[in-house]
Automatic annotation (TrEMBL):
Name listed for the protein in its UniProt record: SUF system FeS cluster assembly SufBD core domain-containing protein
InterPro entries associated with the record: Fe-S_cluster_assembly_SufBD, SUF_FeS_clus_asmbl_SufBD_core, SUF_FeS_clus_asmbl_SufBD_sf, SUF_FeS_clus_asmbl_SufD
UniProt-listed GO biological process terms: iron-sulfur cluster assembly
UniProt domain SUF system FeS cluster assembly SufBD core: residue ranges: 137-364
Domain of life: Bacteria
Transmembrane stretches, start-end: none
Length: 393
């Protein structure tokens, strides 16, 4: 098992199935954030932010050759009473407010979408039922922009469900007013050939709480960038994720938490399981604590379970601290093969090998799945895990 925790800058721990390292260089992009796609050079794969991504499988999203098509995706919003659902133009003041595109694909998505979908929860409104957003691919190329906005002291749970086939590049913005509480569950359950690249931007208000749960199972290539910044003191962000990377799949999660305000908290925990030849998972966890962010408390963790030979994991936690006046900061990364001792323990008590493997993997994911808090979603995800394991038997 490869482990990295509180390593001095520049140190590296490497194994045959994982790399865990810390470097302040990895938090820097090859071009500054911009809304204009022309400000980003076409990536060639040697840039820090693209070196793990197989560019040839992006289907033209990175070089401008992917042209949007009518009916590429359908978006259906199911919202309880009191929630406002609308479609707005590019000139709406909320568009782009949560964050600026940080790479060429995100800028391409921003430059190419025609209408943005906005879901708003008025101030002091507590939504009793989840808001559900179904994004279904119809096989074409699409660019999208989704905004979730909570007024001051509002509370809501949002489930964004991605299914079907196609090529999608999108920006998703979360705007949290002061004291608001938002939980977002983003499920990537695409068909085998789908490509999905998205930047998730959260702007967390004063004393607001943001919880993101990212679940990735399907797709040929999925590359997501959850990003958080704070609009005031006292904000909290929790970034949880789980992924099951199967044969030939590329799943990449690149987190960035910008502690730009004092006395804010963040906690990131992602877990993944891999199986099959050329299964490739990438996790990048970047945390920047700025000089003005005194009293910051942050921690990030990534765990990977490799079930078969032929799979590859790249796990890179990065922590950059510009002030010594913090409450706490740390990170950990570990990747290991399937625990034969656990398997032997269960089989010695009469449990068949196939069932024992299921129990170990279910236990590995259970802690994060339970954080979702929605029984129907939890049951569906555990069923998907079971199906993945069944395919490997």
């Amino acid at each position: 098992m490869a482990e990295a925790q509180n390593i001095p800058a520049g140190s590296t721990t490497a194994g045959s199935i994982a790399v865990a390292a810390e470097s302040t260089v990895a938090t820097r992009m090859s071009a500054p954030p911009s809304y204009d796609v022309a400000d980003f050079p076409v990536p060639h794969g040697r840039e820090e932010e693209w070196r793990f991504t197989p560019l040839e499988r992006l289907r033209g999203l990175h070089d401008g050759s992917a042209v949007a098509q009518d009916g590429g995706v359908t978006v259906e919003v199911t919202a309880p009473e009191g929630v406002i659902v609308e479609t707005v133009g590019r000139d709406d003041a909320r568009v782009g407010k949560a964050g600026i595109p940080v790479d060429r694909v995100a800028a391409q998505a921003y430059s190419s979408f025609e209408k943005a979908s906005v879901v708003s929860v008025p101030k002091e409104t507590v939504v009793s039922e989840p808001i559900r957003i179904a994004v279904h691919g119809e096989g074409g190329v699409s660019y999208g922009h989704q905004i979730i906005e909570l007024g001051a002291f509002a509370e809501a749970v949002v489930v964004i469900d991605h299914t079907g086939d196609g090529v999608l590049a999108a920006n998703v913005d979360y705007l949290l007013g002061d004291g608001a509480k938002l939980t977002v569950v983003s499920v990537q359950d695409w068909d085998d050939k789908a490509v999905h690249v998205a930047q998730h931007n959260a702007l967390v208000g004063r004393d607001a709480s943001f919880k993101s749960i990212v679940v990735t199972f399907g797709g040929d290539l999925v590359r997501l960038q959850p990003r958080v910044q704070y609009a005031g003191t006292g904000g909290e962000a929790e970034l949880f994720g789980l992924y099951f990377t199967d044969r030939g799949q590329h799943q990449e999660h690149r987190l960035f938490v910008d502690h730009n305000a004092a006395h804010c908290k963040s906690n990131a925990a992602y877990k993944g399981a891999l199986q099959g030849t050329d299964a490739h998972a990438v996790w990048i966890g970047d945390v920047l604590i700025r000089a003005s962010a005194e009293g910051t408390d942050t921690y990030e963790m990534n765990r990977n379970l490799v079930l078969t030979d032929g799979a590859r994991v790249d796990s890179v936690p990065n922590l950059e601290i510009e002030t010594g006046e913090i409450a706490g900061a740390g990170h950990a990364s570990a990747t290991g093969r399937f625990d034969d001792e656990q398997l032997f323990y269960l089989m010695a008590r009469g449990i068949p090998e196939t069932e024992a493997r299921r129990l170990v993997v279910r236990g590995f994911f259970a802690e994060l799945v339970q954080k979702i808090g929605l029984p129907d979603v939890e049951e569906r995800l555990m069923a998907s895990i079971e199906a993945e394991l069944e395919a490997s038997v």
